[in-house]
Amino acid sequence: MKLLQLKIDGFGKFNNQVFNIESQNQLIFGENEAGKSTIYQFIRTILFGFPKKREMIRDFTPVNGAVYGGKVIFEDSLHGKVTVERYKERNKGQASVLLENGQIGNDLLLEKILSPLTKETFDQIFSFQQEQLTELNQLNEVKLQHLLLTVGLTGSERLTKMNDNFLKERQKLFKPSGRIPEINQRLRQLKKLEQQIELVESQEATYQVKQKRMLELTESIAEVEKEKNYQFELEKTILEQQKRFPMYVEWESLTKETKGESEASTQKIEAVQKALNNHRFLLDKEKELLENQSGQLGVESPAYQFYLENQSIFDDLLEDQLAVESMTERRQLLEEQLKEYRQSKETLYKKYRLSEDKINIELTPDVEEEMVSLAKEEEELVREKVVLSNEKSRLLIRRKDMDTALTTAENQLMVVPSDEAEPVKKKGLDPLSKKLFSGLSIAVALLISSLAIVLDQTWIYVPVIILILLGLYGFVSVKKNQPVKEEEVAVSKEDYLLQLTASDEVEHLLHELEAQLTEIESKLETLQIRKQEWADQYGFSMKETMTLWLSRIPIYTQLQDIQEKEVEMKQNLAEADKVLTSYAELLAFSKQWISIENKSTKEIYQEMKKFVDEQQKYLKDKALSSSNEQNFQGQLHSIRKQVTKCVEEVLSLIDSATVTTIEEAAIWLKKQDLSKQSQNRIDELELSLGDYFDLTKHYKLVEINHHLISVKNKEDECTEKINGYQNEFQELKYELSQMEKNGSLDMLYQERENKLTIIKELSDQWISYKVAEELTQDVFQYLSDQQLPALLATVTTYFKILTEGNYFKVFVKNGQLFVRDKEQKVWPIIQLSTGAKDQLYTAFRLAFVHLHTEDYEAPVIIDDGWLHFDAKRKLTLFKLLDGFSQQTQVICLSSDQAVRSYFETHDLGIVTIGRDV
Prior knowledge:
The protein has helices spanning 36-48, 107-114, 119-124, 130-136, 141-154, 158-173, 182-203, 206-258, 266-297, 302-309, 311-319, 321-352, 365-414, 431-455, 461-480, 486-538, 546-585, 601-626, 630-654, 662-689, 701-739, 744-802, 834-851, 853-856, 871-884, 897-905; strands spanning 2-11, 14-20, 25-29, 69-76, 80-87, 95-99, 104-105, 127-128, 807-813, 816-821, 826-828, 860-863, 890-894, 909-912. By secondary structure, it is α/β, with parallel strands linked by helices.
């Protein structure tokens, strides 16, 4: 990129100014405050955008209200002539780009053209500022070497500053042996806090044990609750089984009836029905023929005469026989079921000691919901009352012991003489005289005892004993009158004060417990009023808890259901008996010929069938024996042949080994009809029963009731366990709350968590800085390995030119930067003069630009970058820049007359700006 023209419409002090840059090596000359830096900022702004508010850059808004912005025209190797226009008030400060081929774009196109050149690269690589040279003198050897290498490798000191900033920020947070860094301070604070926590926990050794037990109780309660919920769901299923058991009995009965029976097709049933109708017709015809013949045979037997008179009635009754047998079996099942219901009811009455008048309780949903809520409240209040009462008993015992200890301490203090009272002087010998007298008496006694032994006189022992007693009395009296030591008195008073403090604390706790118990009693009294209303309304006992009431309500409901089912079974039995009685009454006309006394309806119909079979056999036998007419025999033979053929047809259609007679065929047809109805009913029942019964198993109502009782017992056991666990939990919770009442442990734990959180956050910051620092070092090392050889070769060439051969080599040894002069002496960087340092810095900057010309193609802008150069060094620099500009455009901003003279002498481009512009 080569700058060609600057058109400034309004920027700082410039308005409607045009600057043409015609030379590869261009000087923009002006006195101080002429606007050289303004031109640099104008180029920077048009290429990279207006500065943001947070950037600390001088405001270049036009002072006379002109349009803020302008144009920069430059030549690009790929796109040719490029015009960039940017105004603050237009298009939100976005650039307008026009290419030589007519293409128009915005900031995106401009970034693509300038890439990889950015605003930061432009500022730190392609611009030379006086401030950068001034900073070189403020660096030590290590930082100076690092800066030079960084500048040479990256074109700026950015990596160095970043690395230094990361190190500073990291050391602000933590140093291994530091005291001021924040993490060090907080670690010391945490250590002190841990010691304090350890001390408090050692004083409360049981705290952790109780806390662990509370966690165990919480887990146990959760497990038992889970088991209780399972039993509760199982109870629902069993109650549904009880409710639907009549349906199950019906299903089982129908299943047994249809078991082993194959359902025939509709066509087959119609064919059998048609054949049976034909058979009935032939029988009627045979019957008519026999009756006619019997009339001719003379007087018949009375039984047969009775049968003939009522034959049509008997035929109708025979068709009802199958219905009677089915109803009889149904009645037997109902009786068995009613018996099971009664046994279940008696079992429940006996188990829960109930009577029939106490189970007729009907709670509305609102009342039951309110009762559940108050039951929980009552249970909680009773539990708290028990816990507080136990604690009160413990504190009363402790207060009694403390009162005894205080009384003892007070008695001990009362014998100590007051500090203000003068001791009363007793008459008699002082303690020292008493001691001397006592010792002398014992000594004399010993001498006299020796004399008694020598003289062998027993009476001498009497004065010996008297003297010894006097001596001992003296010593005892001296010890008894000895004053109490001040230290002992002080210790007793201190213990007494501690005991008083502890006693006051116990009294305070007792007062609080009394207040809590009073409050609980008040709540219980209020609750008892509502409880009494329910007890009067529903017949509950006030001696029982509402939880017990609620636990028994399902039993009441179960008993009510059983009673309802019992009533329903009785009604079903009554209906069955009524139907069977009506069937029996139909045979009352035949009691003269059929025995119906003391027999069931089923047995009566069996007797009727037997009677009919006998009369039909009698008719056939008589007809065969008395008929001699050939015509009658022929007709009878023909009819019976047709009957036989019809029977064979029916049996062949049915094709069953169990159906061998025409009567069995009729029954088979009736069963087929019933079977279809039964199968439909079975399907309906299976839909209702499938969710509650395993239809592959057999159930009995008694077993279901026993199972329900077992589940209820397990629920009660679970409830008792939960109550026990909760009581223990509440006791532990209260004890822990008393231990934590002063808030010390809780506050210390919370404080520790807060400190750990802060330390973790600070540690994360420290690690971030550490990683960033290492990453910067790695980047720098990578760049060094890749670019250092070529860089040092180019730097050596430029530095040799700038120093006119005084220094002819720049190299790195053991990570340190050195230069070698023409006398083969090696110099570290720190020992170079200020001007030589500036020359070396300039060599590094120009070397980087030279190595990356093809990548960036950006002009080099130097703003008085020869601050410490004498005239000779300046001349050398200008010569180097003249040659350097053959590849890269160089724009110098200066107020130095020597620079202007050089550019004029060598016929280089000069743009002059001044205060009158």
